[in-house]
Amino acid sequence: MKFYNLVIRYRLPIGIALVLLGGVANYFTSFWPAFPLYFIGVILIFGHFFFGPLRLIQEYMENGDMEGAERVLNSIRFPNLLYKPIRSVYYTLKGNVAMMKQDYDGAEKMMKKGLDLGMPMKEAEGASLLQMGMLAMQKNDLKQGESYIRQAIRKGLPDKENEAAAYLQMCSIMMNKREFRAAKDFFRKAKALKPTTPQIVDQIKQIEKYITRMPG
User: Cβ(93)–Cβ(69) under 8 Å?
Assistant: First the structure.
């Protein structure tokens, strides 16, 4: 795995070097002895621009190194050359990084690009829509936030933590709209999922203090 990541990291210079070596071999011998060097070099160069280095981000994300993940994203100079599903993931990740830096306008712009391209899995699309909804709520656009979150729930979310977060966001929106019966229903759905993420657990505890006193 480490060797594969190393190849991904350096495949562009390796590919260029192999093509140049092929040119030298071609000059001093003939085309066919140089062909394997040309072939492997072109495949590596093609892979760099068509698939990109996004696989490297996983290691940084697992270690919580967002700066490292951002460096990998910034190393992609021509995102429009990426294979469409990979390009969608690229823009989504750019949006996640912008969101962590509290650049909400930049995050929204990148995530919209990712959604417009189409996500490779419905659950991934749902997660992106949920993030878009949270972004809208950060900007106090509750109507747009509700629309995105409802779409996320319909599309499906990748795990119970994301589902619980979506239901809690809908609960907050319903409370703001004074639709207390709907707020309670969304709260019950969130709690029934038994999420373990500390932030979500704390949010449930906070809402539980006063939701039982609501009418409806």
Answer: yes
